[in-house]
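Exam revision sheet. Question 4 asks you to relate a sequence to its structure. Input first:
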Amino acid sequence: MKIMTRMTRIFFLAILVFSLAGIPGAIAADSQDSVVEQVIQRGVLRVGMSTFVPWAMKDKTGKLIGFEIDVATRLAEDMGVKVEFVPTKWSGVIPALLTGKFDVIIGGMGILPSRNLKVNFTAPYDYTGMSMVASKKMAAGMTGIEAFNKPGVTIAARLGSTAVTAAKKYLPNAEIRMFDDEAQAYQEVINGRAHAVVGSAPTPAFQAIKYPDKLFLPIDGTFTREPIGFAVQKGDVDTLNYFNNWIGYVDAEGWLKARKTYWFETKDWESQIQ
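Answer key, structure tokens:
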């Protein structure tokens, strides 16, 4: 009887193992290292991002600088590893994260429910909002957001960004023209081929200052408020926990506020890119 009982247990254990083998991640989950552990073992934190002023941009020497660059660099330093930036088209940045091309997205990504279905977000480390800058040639006399919510009005925005979401929500009657690169969207307005561009503050205001003869601000401030977070793959509790605690630590330290003030409320860095 004891022999039969032992054989029976072995038989049912074998069935359990084969059953779990058919469930993706059922066994691998225990042996799979978290992204944080992989980063420490590798010695490099790979960060997915895209360039847009003043979050991430290249200086005169081709080096990446900006608010997000500072954030990712400090994060890597506190982890005791190097940082590797992986520039990616914004429209494809989430698919690239999901296929493992980098460990985390740190690129001014707005926390949206639709995005949260695909990735996990950290607690917000920043807040931003959408603003607008318009063409003096195309949009002369147009003030207020409703003035642009009309057929025949062309709005430029960056493909895959929350600027597109905001434009579709607040300017449903206008034509939304989308571009892979944010600089292309602004150039469309500067060249007089679109009435206005919707983008994250303070970039529209910076562009109006840079091209005062061609651009103006048709609205004061921003017309949305968006939380910004790191994006990571789903199911990695340890990594999400570490990033959340790190954000809380540097926020309490005052470091995040200091970097945000430097990049968004001063132009002390402008000489580095001109």
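Marking note for examiners. The mean pLDDT is 88.
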